[in-house]
Amino acid sequence: NAGVTQTPKFQVLKTGQSMTLQCAQDMNHNSMYWYRQDPGMGLRLIYYSASEGTTDKGEVPNGYNVSRLNKREFSLRLESAAPSQTSVYFCASSLQGLRNQPQHFGDGTRLSIL
Amino acid sequence: GESVGLHLPTLSVQEGDNSIINCAYSNSASDYFIWYKQESGKGPQFIIDIRSNMDKRQGQRVTVLLNKTVKHLSLQIAATQPGDSAVYFCAEKPFLSAGNMLTFGGGTRLMVKP
Fold it and tell me: What whole-number distance in Å separates Cα of residue B50 and Cα of residue B46?
């Protein structure tokens, strides 16, 4: 049981390049999330998918797109990378129903935009 | 040692002492709270959660206290060990938030001296 798996772990891009960050979970969770974490700061929500087939904007969606490919996978795309998007990106998933449940996180993708 | 919350981002304690990490949350409508531990190079790891109908919840060596009157959350770690060194985040979920989104605090770094 791997939990939440993110690929790649590290990436360096040039300004203007595009890239897709991959995330997969094997816990049969219905909700998935993408966050960014900047130095010395907490996590900020970029996009989320409450269930398969739905996606919604979070706090900082500009410059990103997402795809909920199936129940397991939720990808984050940077169409034209900018230096301001240099950050650590975390994917999370949770089982949401009648009772609140915690989100479980992957180990992140460290992205540098030059 | 005792932290005064997110305004003091680093808490240094002696191994074997108890640690108290504080968090002031912002939304009086929040009904679910989580503490996460984040080690260097890793994603946030779930420690313990508490629902708003509770004042206290205990886990293994950890206790979370919730004071809804002053919107304050604390994490107590008993007999702190070197492996407890990490950054600790609190997170809150407003009642009926879309997609069960969490709002994260800025984090407190716990350093355990041997």
Answer: 12
Which residues in chain A are contacts of B93 at CB distance < 8 A?
A: 100
> Of the candidates A2, A8, A7, A4, which has an alpha carbon nearest to the alpha carbon of residue A33?
A4
CA A40 remoteness from chain centre: 19
Q: Are B37 and B86 in contact (CB under 8 A)?
A: yes
d(CA A27, CA A99): 17
Please provide residue A83's backbone torsions phi and psi, each rounded to the nearest 5 degrees: -55, -30
* Separation between Cα atoms, residue B3 and residue A69, nearest integer Å: 43
Q: What is the pLDDT of residues B18-70, one digit of tens each?
A: 999 999 998 888 999 999 999 999 999 999 999 988 999 999 999 999 999 99
**Are the Cβ atoms of B43 and A108 closer than 8 angstroms?**
yes
Angstrom distance (rounded) from CA A17 to CA A11: 12
